[in-house]
Amino acid sequence: MNVASRFRTLPETGDCVQFTLDGVPATAPAGVTVAAALLAHSGAWTRQTAQGAPRTAYCMMGVCFDCLVEVDGTPNTQACMTLLREGMTVRRQTGLRELNGGQRD
Amino acid sequence: MYQRTPEITIIGGGLVGLSVALGLLKAGQRVCVLDGADNDARASQGNFGLIWGQGKGWDFAPYANWTMDALAAWPAFAKQLQDLSGIDVALDQSGGYEFFTDPTEFDAFEAELAQQATHLGNRARYEMLNGEELRSQMKGIGPDVVGASFSPCDGHVNPLRFLRALRCSVQAMGGHVTLGATVSAIRLQPNGGFALALANGETLQTEQVVLCAGLGAATLARDLGFITQVRPQLGELLITEKLGDRLPFLSSTIRQVDEGGVQIGGTKANAGLDDRETLPIMSKLARHAVTVFPALADVRVVRAWGALRVMSPDGYPVYAKSSLHPGAFLVTCHSGVTLAPLHASALADWIMNTSPTPDLEAFDECRFALSHAA
Predict the structure, then answer these.
(1) How close is the nearest chain B Cα to the Cα of A100, in Å?
(2) Phi, psi at residue B238, to the nearest 5°?
(3) pTM (2 d.p.)
(4) Predicted-complex ipTM score
(5) Which of B39, B127, B226, B277 is the most exposed place for a label (fewest CB within 10 A)?
(6) Does A74 sit within 8 Å of B260, measured CB to CB?
(7) Which residues between 282 and 321 in chain B have a beta carbon less than 8 angstroms from any beta carbon of chain A?
(8) Fold classification of B7-50+161-229+314-373 (topology level)
(9) By the CB < 8 Å criterion, does B260 face chain A?
(10) pLDDT tens across B257-307, in order?
């Protein structure tokens, strides 16, 4: 299923950004949000709720919180409100976040 | 011969009104609950869900004992709600802490607990822990906490599920709950009973009326000749994202809901009926939480709100029977969660005047008469 085809993309500049999703290298056009990159990547689920139900980005405007992922070690990050940057480490958010000792990046 | 049971109308469908309704229904009364408008000041939709006794009634023995009775009655009450409504209110009564960062406040609270214990006798249960003892017992408590009190009797419930469980229980017992039924005036009927004028123009008749309308009770209380004047007290609270870990404690200011989110609250302010949250208070709450438990520092706050407590002039509950108008009752209190098991049992005996009628004289509003007249 080509999920990306459901969306009109921003004008392509030809520039690309490299990132990793759950440790696997991936590529997306420069200037997109993490959510857009993940939808274009496979469209598969990007988080699981506390009950284990699969979810992915839905509203794309910061309201529904269904796009939460771990970005560079920070859990519960709204992927649709975060621009993808070169070298980002993105992990799917499975279940609730844990306390990590109050460390900030 | 068929005799019509006197119809009791409860004005107010929050925690207090629904608890009283439940008790009366269990006692076999026919009960109707009138609930007001969505945008009323609803303490029952903003509260913290604490079942709390520490310090309560330290300078007023009847309240100390009434609260302790309620704490003891909670486990059976929670089970009753579960049986009636099918809703688990997530009662966790495994004890609660009061954390202090100011040594003077810590000492003052210890004195209050000691005074409270003299009222409770052998029911008193608390211990004081200094900062070092606390940190050796519980991992993760911040270095600036100078001490804490602990009571094994305290606990909490999920406040929203509790409100829903109460309403469903009342309905399961055959009580009628009418939503959007704001009572604008109460008129005494010449032959006894009361006429309730609703804001939508309707009038309802009732033989007895129990006023449980929280902050909405002001003008209606005057209609019935009551002198109690309740005032709003603003409390603000923060809600964090849900956590997979369980916090190792429950405190009066930091509690984790069974679903994982952390509530941080406990502020008190007089702001009239303005229930908006404020940035300085929100940042103070966040700072407090991180001081007590530094691991919360990177946890996101996802919601914040203010809600208005219902405070009587001395902060204690008011249970008043109108001497002028038999069949009219006023029930109001701040601790609608903690006291709910008693509101749903002993208070029904008091309203119906059946044996054994609990002695609630200490909570009558006559204690305000002097200051009111002055």
Answers:
(1) 7
(2) -110, 145
(3) 0.90
(4) 0.79
(5) B39
(6) no
(7) 290, 294-300
(8) FAD/NAD(P)-binding domain (3.50.50)
(9) yes
(10) 988 999 999 899 998 989 898 999 999 999 999 999 999 999 999 999 999
